[in-house]
Design a protein that fits this description.
CATH architecture of the largest domain: 3-Layer(aba) Sandwich
Number of helices: 10
Number of strands: 16
Shape: globular
Strand order of the largest sheet: 4-1-3-2-5
Radius of gyration: 22 Å
Number of domains: 3
Oligomer: single chain
CATH class of the largest domain: Alpha Beta
Largest sheet: 5 strands, mixed
Helix content: 25-40%
């Protein structure tokens, strides 16, 4: 059966596509001391609102972390605004999205946080300035081709499931804080090897490589700009791509659709799939992978138990 779009629906779709292509999706971070985070937050919020910027910006005494969508007409103005905010932000590297399948954000949040990425480290002796060595895409490939090196994925298990580097280790956890608690015991046996850590944009590796170096690990590396920059550079310079699958992102897109490569499977039927949804049962809300067939048959629930709400009902069996 063919499905014909009405003129109104076609017009709406074209408007959405045009809207997507008129923005840039940008992420950036920087660890540096901010003496008055509240003033910093207010100044950013006022100016981002003027430029119709949407997304999330976290501010703390230790720095800034942002994922935003910027109208094309304001992109260069936004960059200049950030560069001039503080000397530490001058020529700050900004990651651009690889795909533009959906509008990623519908609001602007600029918030004060204790940390720009929660790591659970409370030791006053921890030196966050002592980071691993940055590598570009060519250097990353050289390390991956070195069979004695160890690759460590510092993303959550659900990010790793749909895409990761060949032969990499995932510190399996739901949060970065949990990973930071487990990583030393997991990697102690590799202490004398080359260790390459990676994450989406690089921010989690700033802390994780520091943690290893503060605990006498020696040969510690991470990717400049994270997976995002690696994928952009292997495409730009026609290099071998050792990242398999798709890249999970924390916005409405959920996945960067830069390739058709699928390495994950539906959690119900095990058919190849990389579509994440949240369970329709509000008391569950589990994030899981579900194919179109199972999504139709289970109506976007993660299980029959959730679909029929067995967990929240009592039955008189007598």
């Amino acid at each position: 059966m063919s499905f014909l779009l009405s003129k109104d629906n076609k017009s709406l779709l074209n408007k959405k596509k045009n809207k997507i292509h008129k923005i840039k999706i940008v992420s950036f971070y920087k660890y540096f001391y901010i003496s008055k985070p509240e003033l910093f937050r207010d100044f950013i919020h006022i100016n981002f609102n003027k430029m119709n910027i949407l997304g999330r910006v976290y501010i703390s005494f230790e720095g800034i972390n942002a994922q935003i969508s910027v109208p094309l007409v304001f992109y260069h103005k936004m960059k200049l605004f950030i560069y001039l905010l503080k000397s530490e932000l001058n020529n700050l590297y900004m990651n651009l999205a690889l795909s533009y399948s959906k509008i990623p954000f519908n609001k602007l949040y600029v918030r004060i946080k204790k940390q720009i990425v929660s790591d659970g480290i409370i030791c006053n002796k921890f030196n966050n300035k002592n980071n691993g060595i940055y590598l570009n895409a060519i250097e990353v490939n050289n390390i991956i081709e070195d069979s004695s090196a160890v690759l460590v994925d510092m993303r959550n298990y659900y990010e790793y499931e749909i895409g990761h580097f060949v032969n990499s280790i995932n510190v399996r956890a739901k949060t970065f804080k949990q990973q930071m608690q487990d990583i030393l015991s997991l990697l102690i046996k590799f202490k004398n090897k080359k260790i390459l850590m990676y994450c989406t944009g690089g921010i989690r590796c700033e802390k994780s490589t520091s943690l290893l170096l503060n605990n006498n690990f020696k040969n510690v590396y991470h990717i400049k700009g994270g997976i995002l920059k690696y994928l952009r550079d292997v495409h730009k310079f026609n290099l071998p791509n050792y990242f398999q699958g798709k890249l999970f992102v924390f916005d409405a897109r959920m996945i960067e659709d830069y390739s058709n490569n699928i390495i994950s499977s539906c959690h119900q039927c095990n058919n190849l799939c990389d579509t994440y949804i949240n369970c329709k049962n509000s008391s569950c809300h589990l994030l899981f992978i579900q194919c179109k067939y199972c999504r139709n048959s289970l109506d976007k629930y993660c299980s029959l138990a959730c679909k029929y709400n067995f967990f929240n009902k009592t039955y008189n069996l007598l």
